[in-house]
């Protein structure tokens, strides 16, 4: 039987050599690469079961994003390019933890619970980042897929969002795009070039300085550039010659609020960083006073939302728009969206799956994590209305042009998941269309000083949270202690939550000055110990 065969291959080639229990977390399984082999093999098995269950192509990505080079990870992708549903995470977790001799039982159990017809055909598309461990782990995934008699499309090196895009294309033949890496570059560059045709700019300089975190974004960006010509000049650094994510990349820049190594930041330069797997993007620049200034996910979200809102107004399309953030969003951004932009804003727990889900409540849902991961979702209705109006020649020019622009922006945005390449092209398009510099963009609102720190504790899962992670429910007394500390700070806000990707509790704090934000984070951190 197929499950026994899968278990046999597992024992022989990918035995379980890990004692600790692991869980499918915020972004799948993530840990030291040398503990992952059996988990990836088993996720290969699960990706086939999931494909049979869904009757379509599923995806499996090998990456640990912004984590250090020694780590790696695996996550599964659903038919439309979104994350595997939360309801399936428990299967991933039990498969990863079961002993080799009980593997058959867990596979049978999943098949039974989800009524899966194991004789059905299955296809899984896989991709991987540039880590040294990624190739052999992707081979473990292939073994898993083949042991379950699934067909495997191995796309080799890809950014995470490229794989999400390809899986979506494979399941929506002819609708979302060509299901290849080439198709991805063609679709994005065509939209970008159309949107930037005939632009008249004085302040906007079509030159970007880009830190690629020494990750998979480096070779991919290079391929994209061939399509952009001189419409956007990109000067790259950390493009693969140095250590992955080390003192560079979007996470480093966001958390340390500092420029990456390898970049000589001067006033007038517009800079950006990708993370290791190319799904996060942050911008930054040096002010004329010589200060480092960050334009993070919140700034990108408000830029996108304001621009789309203007286009909606000009097009007179009756579509609602909303913004989704997490507790890490800077308080100033939330106030700005509420009070100035007057757009509804929702707060959800950390993790793209929650943001993505919530954004589907709107005709146009903009979601971003402060760390630079995000995208825009257009509902089926919105897409249809926008495309219809874009091709309606009976309308006046202004109304129709706005719809044409909206339709082209839809093609530029990777709606399956946050995508650094796509988001970067959207930012550049908006800045060019407004003829803005970074300072112009940054002037909408001023960030409250903030600090994020990590606390190493015995067992991070003793901390439990509620209210989109903004308050703790356990251990007893912790929230009261945090409230008391926060009350002593002007514009103070702080929270603590267990990380889903690292063995730490994260503490975030905001206050009126940087020194106070730092101090508040430390004081809250002390309460967590
Ligand atoms: P955790 O480790 O659960 O905080 C981090 C990021 C998330 C998300 C995931 C997946 C922060 C504070 N947290 O999750 O936003 O990006 O990694 O990569 O940035
Ligand atoms: Zn990432």
From TrEMBL:
Record PROSITE patterns: PGM_PMM
EC number(s) reported in the record: 5.4.2.3
Keyword Transmembrane helix applies: no
Top EC group: isomerase
Alphabetized Pfam families for the sequence: AMG1_II, AMG1_III, PGM_PMM_I, PGM_PMM_IV
Stretches assigned to the Phosphoacetylglucosamine mutase AMG1 domain: 180-282, 296-436
Active site: 65
Occurrences of domain Alpha-D-phosphohexomutase alpha/beta/alpha (ranges): 56-85, 119-167
Every Alpha-D-phosphohexomutase C-terminal domain range: 479-523
Any one Gene Ontology BP term: UDP-N-acetylglucosamine biosynthetic process
Record keywords, A-Z: Carbohydrate metabolism, Cell wall biogenesis/degradation, Isomerase, Magnesium, Metal-binding, Phosphoprotein
Function field: Catalyzes the conversion of GlcNAc-6-P into GlcNAc-1-P during the synthesis of uridine diphosphate/UDP-GlcNAc, which is a biosynthetic precursor of chitin and also supplies the amino sugars for N-linked oligosaccharides of glycoproteins.
Family: Belongs to the phosphohexose mutase family.
Protein name: Phosphoacetylglucosamine mutase
Organism: Biomphalaria glabrata
The encoding gene: LOC106063287
